[in-house]
Known about the structure:
- It is a single chain.
- By secondary structure, this protein is of the alpha/beta class.
- Helix content is 44%, strand content 15%.
- The protein has a four-stranded parallel sheet, with helices on both faces.
- Helix 6 links the parallel strand 5 and strand 6.
- Helix 1 runs parallel beside helix 14 and helix 3 packs parallel to helix 4.
Amino acid sequence: MNALQEEILRLKVERRALILAHNYVDSPLQEIADFVGDSLELSQKAAKSDAEVLVVCGVRFMAETAKLLSPDAIVLLPCPDAGCPMADMASGNAVRAARAAMPDATFVAYVNTTADTKAEVDICCTSGNAEKIVSSLPDDKPILFLPDRNLGHNVARKLDRPMNYWSGCCPVHDAVTIEMIENARAAHPGAEVLIHPECRPEVVAAADRALSTGGMLRYVRESESKSFIIATECGILFRLRNENPGKEFFTLQEPIVCRDMKKITLDMVRDALIDLQPRVELSADVAERALNAVRRMIETK
Ligand code: 13P
Ligand code: SF4
């Protein structure tokens, strides 16, 4: 631990804060976090937390979800302009208009959406539970899956259940090509290719397994394989290598980087804990409706 990390750990105790970090953020942030996980695991932690302050090292939709699930806590997003370009592809207004056009459909929103958008849908999902959520829905009604067309198509293919899709995508995962996967296989023969389901369906088909970031960590822990090519944001390599010292991990030739996930720094976390700012606040009306969709996801067995 460096001096700044130690200062953060002291402030964290003083503030009775819990630090949640996504698997993609830089390793010094993962080191000072109380919990590091995927979007689903972070929301589950926030739901169970009784901390007075939650510090979210990730992007805005994650901090908003934490606020929905832990409404009495002060929720800090140390880098307020860390957003998710995919979340910005489906505004609450646009989804409201789509509902008016498809009144019979069940609207499923990936958690990578703003609280405004969650307030307009029936249920949320993450990449870790999307198949379970879609399977739980009545099959006599059409489904509109938003905003990630790639995750939607990948789930529909797995479940053999056609859906309607929004046209959004994660720009960094959507840019992965079959050629990149093939080049990585040629450079690292025998390595298993794990890919995130935000990638295009034809690219997912060229990999060995599509998993959420939490799913990748669990899969690698239990797998007999000794080497893996990881086709998702490179921040996850820190945990994969730390937790699996006997195994080897490779990125694609050009590592996948989400600029928003890399915006947060240790200085920002220290300042947020001192100032108790910047906070995430949601209007009561939006929070109530968005929480229904998130709660329905968490309660789906
Ligand atoms: P998961 O960690 O839930 O797999 O999500 C990846 C992601 O892109 C978060 O923005
Ligand atoms: Fe959004 Fe993609 Fe970055 Fe995840 S990796 S936060 S989906 S832009």
